[in-house]
Automatic annotation (TrEMBL):
Stated name of the protein: Peptidase
The keyword Transmembrane helix is assigned to this record: yes
Keyword NAD: no
Pfam families documented for this protein: Band_7
Species of provenance: Polaribacter aquimarinus
Length: 276
């Protein structure tokens, strides 16, 4: 049985064109990059000066030389949460958990990566947050940390972090202290004290309210007494006689049967006798 063999012959130069096409495809794939939403990119020039700090690439399709590398990082606002142990002003250890919102400066992303590395959160942000938190919490007592100073502490930590990161190409937007954990005995003592203070304030409020009510009643009684005194002093005999005469005249105009004796009453006031 004869073997049937089919010889496939490439046209002259065909292999060359295939090799070139494959090379171009590989070259193109290494020369293009897509930067996603909320991201930015900087070019690492392998045969140049390293990170190109002059330009930050925005979202979308970008072309770079195949021997260079595009480093892509998030440039939108991000958050990091952490828990740490700090000391209060009297040396008591307190466990604090919180969240920090930060954002790299888009136009200076190259400088940020060049000076602090790609892991700039660990190299730059974390140490700044830890230093600021320990500095601020060390100014307050456990009672202040647990109760009334939360908003003030958050603002002070933010101010400290922003001061530490000034001209470092990384912006911190907000600090939130989510929880402050004290030793159980200290926490119970603080809660008991706060409860007693609240009860004391309520008691003082009730006393103050009662005093104000008593004062109001006293002023009201004095006002009525003064008014009665003035009214009594103004009712002279002449005024009473005039009022009596006016009443007599009105009664005389009535159709009801009556007897009116003029001048027979006390102080010359009329006496009215009669019925309906």
């Amino acid at each position: 049985m004869a073997n049937n063999q089919v010889d496939i012959k490439f046209p002259k130069g065909g292999v060359f064109f295939i090799v070139v096409a494959v090379a171009l495809l590989i070259l193109f794939s290494k020369s293009t990059v897509t930067i996603g939403p909320g991201e930015g990119g900087v070019v690492f020039e392998r045969f140049g000066d390293g990170i190109n700090t002059e330009k930050t690439y925005g979202e979308g399709f970008q072309i770079v030389a195949p021997w260079n590398e595009m480093i892509i990082r998030k440039v939108r606002q991000q958050s990091v949460s952490d828990e740490m142990n700090v000391l209060s002003v009297n040396g008591l250890e307190v466990k604090v958990s919180g969240t920090v919102w930060y954002e790299p400066e888009f136009s200076n992303l190259g400088l940020l990566i060049k000076t602090k590395g790609e892991d700039y959160e660990r190299e730059l942000l974390d140490p700044a947050i830890n230093a600021a938190a320990r500095s601020v919490f060390g100014r307050y007592t456990p009672e202040q940390l647990y109760s009334s100073k939360r908003d003030v502490i958050e603002q002070e930590i933010l101010d400290e972090v922003q001061k530490l990161l000034k001209d470092q190409y990384l912006m911190v937007k907000r600090v939130l202290v989510k929880d402050v954990k004290l030793p159980p005995t200290i926490r119970t003592a603080i809660e008991t004290k706060l409860k007693q203070e609240q009860e004391s304030l309520e008691y003082e409020f009730r006393i103050a309210k009662a005093k104000k009510e008593a004062e109001r009643q006293r002023i009201d009684a004095e006002g009525k007494a003064t008014a009665n005194k003035i009214l009594s002093a103004s009712l002279t005999d002449k005024i009473l006689q005039e009022k009596g005469i006016e009443a007599t005249l009105k009664l005389s105009e009535s159709n009801n049967s009556k007897v009116i004796v003029i001048g027979s009453g006390k102080n010359g006031m009329p006496i009215i006798l009669g019925n309906q």
